[in-house]
From TrEMBL:
This is Dienelactone hydrolase family protein. PROSITE patterns: TAT. The lineage of its organism: Bacteria, Pseudomonadati, Pseudomonadota, Alphaproteobacteria, Sphingomonadales. InterPro entries: AB_hydrolase_fold (IPR029058), Dienelactn_hydro (IPR002925), Dienelactone_hydrolase-like (IPR051049), TAT_signal (IPR006311). Pfam families: DLH. Residues 57-282 form the Dienelactone hydrolase domain.
Length: 287
């Protein structure tokens, strides 16, 4: 799925649904985690979400059958919407949520925006992705977040009386902070997994948005990110304490990217621990 060669960091963006589900199912059997055995009882559809800048392609998931459930938005990592994130959406929906996984780069290209093995050390290969990322200004992220939540709330299967959740990976980590601040009346739970740039010295630093949110947070930090920025976790804790917001902040014994299968950093045990903590957060705040 991925390999290391002279410091290269390679991600396989084409991990198949079958390969991922076999792995997740084995974990479920060993740990007793909920949801995976019910994945077949999930309705999945490709949808188009109206936004101020156009039409965003996305994947929508919800439990099959009659009923209504809380809404959850998933922000992908920098490589965008691809099979592994569809499976995250399916797995989460099986636990009782209406899940939207949008293509963050819809302004430039429909998903998937990359395929095959991606070498992060190859600047030429990464150039298009970095250009797509550069288009995602704070204002656009906020506008997209509002549009995605409005779309979720317009679904008949969404229970709007319950709070909504948001989770993000790598690039999507800080987007969870922005979403919680952009739609504070809806977001009750927010989770960042190996999020990059949660604490900066700039006036738009994500951690400065905490007072504008009404959510409980789960912030799972990669050990190598913590090594590079050891003061960040303390600044995050101080920001949440000052704003009187509840937050679980933990450095995991795994490297940046550990939650996403297909990455050379993927760590199954740490990823399942993070998923368990996410599930607990959603049960507590979105019930």
């Amino acid at each position: 799925m991925c390999e290391t060669d002279k410091g290269r960091f390679i991600v396989d963006t084409d991990m198949t649904r079958r390969g991922l589900m076999i792995g997740l199912t084995s974990v479920a059997a060993a740990t007793g985690l909920p949801g995976l055995a019910l994945a077949a009882n999930v309705t999945e559809s490709d949808v188009v979400v109206p936004t101020p800048d156009g039409q965003a392609d996305a994947a929508l998931f919800h439990p099959a059958g009659k009923g209504s459930w809380p809404a959850v938005l998933i922000w992908t990592d920098i490589l965008g919407l691809r099979p592994v994130f569809r499976e995250m959406g399916r797995r989460l929906a099986a636990q009782g949520y209406v899940v939207l996984v949008p293509n963050p780069y819809y302004r430039a290209k429909k998903a998937p925006v990359v395929s095959g093995s991606v070498d992060f050390s190859d600047r030429e290969a990464m150039k298009p992705v970095m250009e797509y990322r550069a288009q995602l200004t704070d204002e656009r992220i906020d506008a997209d977040a509002r549009a995605y939540l409005a779309f979720l709330d317009a679904q008949k299967v969404t229970n709007r009386r319950k709070g909504a959740g948001v989770q993000g990976y790598c690039m999507g980590g800080p987007f969870t902070f922005r979403t919680a601040a952009a739609v504070p009346g809806r977001i009750r739970a927010a989770a960042s997994f190996h999020g990059g740039g949660l604490v900066t010295d700039k006036p738009n630093s994500p951690h400065l948005l905490v007072p504008s949110t009404n959510a409980d947070f789960l912030v799972a930090i990669a050990q190598n990110d913590d090594k590079k920025q050891p003061d960040a976790k303390g600044q995050l804790r101080a920001a949440f304490a000052k704003a009187r917001r509840r937050a679980e902040i933990e450095v995991y014994p795994a490297d940046h990217g550990w939650c996403v299968p297909g990455s050379q950093a993927y760590n199954e045990a740490a990823a399942e621990k993070a998923w368990t903590r996410l599930s607990s957060l959603y049960r507590a705040r979105l019930a």
